[in-house]
Amino acid sequence: MNEILLAVPGITCGHCVAAITASVGQVPGVTAVHVDVAAKTVRTIGDADPAAVRAAIDDAGYETA
User: Fold this and answer.
1) Span of the secretion signal (predicted)?
2) Read out DSSP for 16-48?
């Protein structure tokens, strides 16, 4: 299992958490998604392609730093 940790400065609320979790959770190889509002980070567990995780965050309407 690999971990991907990305900074996502636009995370501000529960809606952000839900949108990002739903989008990133559909990426093949992702087994867990953790969105931290206070730290403004997204952490995934699994064997996903980091570019695919970034694309899913973009699709949810957020940008990675």
Assistant:
1) none
2) HHHHHHHHHTTSTTEEEEEEETTTTEEEEEES-
- For residue 61, the tally of other CB atoms under 10 A from its CB is 11
Q: Within 13 A of 50's CA, how many CA atoms are on the CB side?
A: 8
- Digit-coded pLDDT (tens) for 40-55: 999 999 999 999 999 9
User: How many other C-beta atoms are found inside a 10 Å radius of the C-beta of residue 53?
Assistant: 23
Two tokens at 21? 């979790």
In the numeric block, the tokens 């867990």 are attached to 32
- Among 65, 55, 63, 45, smallest CA distance to 1 is for 45
